[in-house]
Amino acid sequence: MQPGEHLTFKPFKQLAMLPIFLFVFLAFSALTLGTPLSHRKLPPCSATSGPCKCPPGVTFKNLTSYSVIGAPAAEVEKIMNHYFESEWLGGPNPYETTGKETAVGATRSYNFTLPDGYFIFTEVQTVYSKYADGSFVFGFGQAPEPRVIKLPGGAEFHGEWAVVRAQQTVLPNETAISWNNWRCDVGTPYDAAAGHEGGMANVSSILQSLGKHTGTDIKPFTVVYTIRDD
What three-state secondary structure class fits 20? Predict the structure, then answer.
């Protein structure tokens, strides 16, 4: 199994009960965690989804956050599927963008200030699809290549990549979401699981405030598939 490919979203078409939902996720999790990894000859991690290796001394992490939002995919898409608008994640919108946000190659840039200086963080959209029922997929990673960012306390960021999928379920007012993230870290420079789960919860809250939330949520949760010291 490859990062970003642990679960296809087709099974969500058949999901109607929480126990089945959890069984599928846990089954895939157990299968992945039980598979030995030979990583010495893997390519460096990049926006290309697949087995990869972090720089020496850096930890490879592969995790996916899941949720069901009680609203049609078309309504979820109006909030979540906007590459140039990221306030639903709980942070600022990018200060600079290039390209078209519905196309691969679009970029968004954020500026951050840390004790050791000011830096610009740029992400490029690597995957984009939107479907007639409102379902969508988008992916992103660093551009042109990951920056090494050292944080106070010894944590280091060496790049992250993600693919987000939202699938309309058989229930017209429920949307299943997965957020796969593979990253290279020293320590924990950013709590990716908390960030993903918080973003999904924010989308649900926004839809409730707009009166578009008429279904049932499954609270966001995260499955960690791989943690490996490279």
Answer: helix
Q: Which H helix or E strand runs over 204?
A: helix 192-209
pTM of the model: 0.81
Burial of 103 (0-12, 13-18, 19+ CB in 10 A): exposed
Residue written as token pair 């993230």: 181
Alpha-carbon gap, residue 17 to 153, rounded angstroms: 44
Looking at residue 11, the DSSP 8-state letter turns out to be G
- The encoded tokens of residue 227 equal 């943690």
Place of tokens 């846990």: 26
Per residue in 2-52, pLDDT (tens digit) is: 343 333 333 344 334 444 444 444 444 433 333 344 556 888 888 776 678
Q: What is the pLDDT of residues 204-215, one digit of tens each?
A: 999 999 999 999
Cis peptide bond N-terminal to 56, omega within 30: no
CA 45, distance to chain mean position in Å, is: 16
- Which one, of 207, 187, 191, lies nearest residue 70 by Cα? 207
The residue written with tokens 């010291």 in the block is 229
From its phi and psi, is residue 50 left (phi > 0), alpha (psi between -120 and 50) or beta? left
